Inverse folding.
């Protein structure tokens, strides 16, 4: 049976609460590691990546002999370091005669290997080799633009996988709102061939254009390198489905009769029931109705007059009969 460890201090409790799963996770941390042997180029590459992700990265300087990400059993130490540092991304550098200047970028799910991409680094240029105005240098923690140029990122499976990994590595924390004034960098990835990508880091310089929208100019600030895809490993379909699950609290309920259009926005359908206009009370009185009512009123008055005249005639006849009867009685007496 596994023993459940409970925190013995408030500090340990706070650390466990930070690592606990959340509905909305914070930005992914990156772990940078050295292999058994590394070259000067790889050391510079790892240092440059750490500098780009300084606010959200952990870098180990010791060499690790037991880490071999693509071999079975060689990922045990890597998963242990991922759990220890609470990092879900890692960059592992190694150098050998068979695979010189080898860089492995991977992602973990529940601190187990999720997927891997192995790259070879060529034509590396560090930040120090570029001369530019230091006032336009990108700030640490700023959100970047991404530009993926080439059909390979849409058609080639290896480059599509590399695109996903690079986006996860450099985009930082996912936010809903963004201030455009804080965007000061762009990562340009150009697919030169089905297995080769030119990676460049540029700063954005805003210039006057004569109207409200400023003119944007790219200034290369480094690092710059050619990435050659050597090997890659996709996750299992069952593991991918489990990792892509969304909590029920975050799923939006479907609204009935409501659709969204990228141009018109939110569109809704309204169903109006059959209107019984004949029995509805109108707020105004049409002239035709007034005339009919006036004629009906006049006919009613005429009828009353006739009834009153007929009543008066009957009363006069009764009165005359009473007089005649009285005269006859007087004559007989």
């Amino acid at each position: 049976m596994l023993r459940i460890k409970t925190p013995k201090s408030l500090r340990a409790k706070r650390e466990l609460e930070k690592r606990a799963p959340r509905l909305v996770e914070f930005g992914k941390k990156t772990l940078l590691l050295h292999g058994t042997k590394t070259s000067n180029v790889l050391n510079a590459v790892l240092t440059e990546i750490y500098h780009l992700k300084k606010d959200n990265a952990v870098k180990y300087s010791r060499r690790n002999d037991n880490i071999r990400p693509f071999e079975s059993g060689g990922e045990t130490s890597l998963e242990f370091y991922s759990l220890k540092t609470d990092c879900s991304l890692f960059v592992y550098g190694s150098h050998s005669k068979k695979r010189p200047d080898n860089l492995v970028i991977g992602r973990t799910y529940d601190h187990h290997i999720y997927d891997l991409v192995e790259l070879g680094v060529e034509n590396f240029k560090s930040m120090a080799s570029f001369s530019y105005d230091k006032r336009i240098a990108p700030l640490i923690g700023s959100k970047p633009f991404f530009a993926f140029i080439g059909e390979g990122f849409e058609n080639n499976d290896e480059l599509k996988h590399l695109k996903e990994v690079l986006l996860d590595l450099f985009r930082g924390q996912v936010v809903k709102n963004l201030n455009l004034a804080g965007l000061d960098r762009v990562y340009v990835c150009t697919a030169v061939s089905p297995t080769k990508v030119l990676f460049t880091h540029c700063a954005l310089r805003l210039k006057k254009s004569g109207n409200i929208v400023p003119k944007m100019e790219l200034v290369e600030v480094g690092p710059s390198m050619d990435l050659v895809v050597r090997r890659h490993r996709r996750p299992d379909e069952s593991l991918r489905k489990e990792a892509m699950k969304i909590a029920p609290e975050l799923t939006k309920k479907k609204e009935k009769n409501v659709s969204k259009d990228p141009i018109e926005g939110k569109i809704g359908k309204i169903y109006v029931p059959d209107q019984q206009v004949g029995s509805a009370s109108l707020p105004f009185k049409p002239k035709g109705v007034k005339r009919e009512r006036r004629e009906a009123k006049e006919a009613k008055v005429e009828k009353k007059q006739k009834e009153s005249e007929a009543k008066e005639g009957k009363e006069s006849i009764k009165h005359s009969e009473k007089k005649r009867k009285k005269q006859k009685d007087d004559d007989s007496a």
The radius of gyration is 44 Å. The chain is about 30% helix and 30% strand.
